[in-house]
């Protein structure tokens, strides 16, 4: 099962707040998208996640390797840049191509960067999420605090 971003906000508020802060999607934020090609070879590419209509989306170049991977149904991991104290967030799942004009238009309105309106739009279907931050990073006695979330079966 997958969840909307709104469900994750409701069920794991601290994790969702960390994701919003680290991905900084309200300010043209960046994340790193991992996919796998048809031969099993991994790809890692920067992307700009977009929060719209209670979900997270990506607009990707139509001819890019990541578009081919997503169209083929590759599993994904979306990792945020590290924050203070090595704070991190990673979202996992798949992505679905958006074909409905009203949903594409909502994503286009929410995007904070320049894009080709003909490029494919994908909704992230998140199945799990992880958040961690360290106390006393780099010092003796450093301790990791983490939280995981998984979609209901």
Could you explain the architecture of this structure?
The protein is α+β, with helices and mostly antiparallel strands and 153 residues long. It is 24% helix and 37% strand. It is built from 4 helices and 8 strands; from the N terminus they run ααββββαββαββ. Strands 1, 2, 3, 4, 5, 6, 7 and 8 form an 8-stranded antiparallel sheet that branches. A hairpin with a 5-residue loop joins strand 1 and strand 2. The protein is globular and about 50 Å long. The N and C termini lie close together (5 Å). The model has no long low-confidence stretch (mean pLDDT 93).
Blueprint (SSEs and pairs):
Layout: H1 5-11, H2 13-23, E1 31-36, E2 42-47, E3 50-52, E4 55-59, H3 65-72, E5 76-79, E6 88-97, H4 101-110, E7 121-135, E8 143-150
Antiparallel strand pairs: 1-2, 1-5, 3-4, 4-7, 5-6, 6-7, 7-8
Helix pairs in contact: 1-2
Structure, briefly:
This protein is α+β, with helices and mostly antiparallel strands and 153 residues long. 24% of the residues lie in helices and 37% in strands. Strands 1, 2, 3, 4, 5, 6, 7 and 8 form an 8-stranded antiparallel β-sheet that branches.
**Oligomeric state of the chains?**
single chain
Residue-averaged pLDDT: 93
Number of DSSP E strands: 8
Report the helical percentage: 10-25%
N- and C-termini, Cα separation: 5 Å
Count of DSSP-assigned helices? 4
Order of helices and strands: HHEEEEHEEHEE
The profile of the biggest β sheet is:
8 strands, antiparallel
Strand composition percent: 35-45%
Shape: globular
Return Rg in Å.
16 Å
Broad structural category: alpha+beta
Poorly predicted parts:
none
């Amino acid at each position: 099962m997958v969840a909307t971003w709104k469900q994750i906000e409701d069920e794991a508020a601290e994790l969702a707040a960390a994701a919003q802060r680290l991905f900084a999607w309200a300010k043209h934020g960046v994340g790193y998208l991992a996919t796998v090609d048809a031969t099993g070879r991994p790809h890692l590419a920067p992307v700009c996640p977009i929060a719209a209509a209670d979900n997270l989306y990506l607009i990707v170049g139509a001819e890019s390797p990541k578009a081919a991977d997503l169209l083929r149904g590759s599993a994904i991991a979306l990792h945020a840049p590290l924050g203070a104290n090595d704070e991190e967030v990673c979202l996992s799942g798949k992505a679905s191509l958006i074909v409905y004009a009203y949903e594409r238009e909502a994503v286009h309105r929410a995007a904070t960067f320049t894009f080709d309106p003909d490029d494919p739009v994908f909704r992230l279907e998140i199945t799990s999420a992880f958040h961690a931050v360290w106390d006393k990073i780099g010092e003796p006695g450093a301790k990791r605090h983490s939280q995981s979330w998984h979609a209901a079966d």
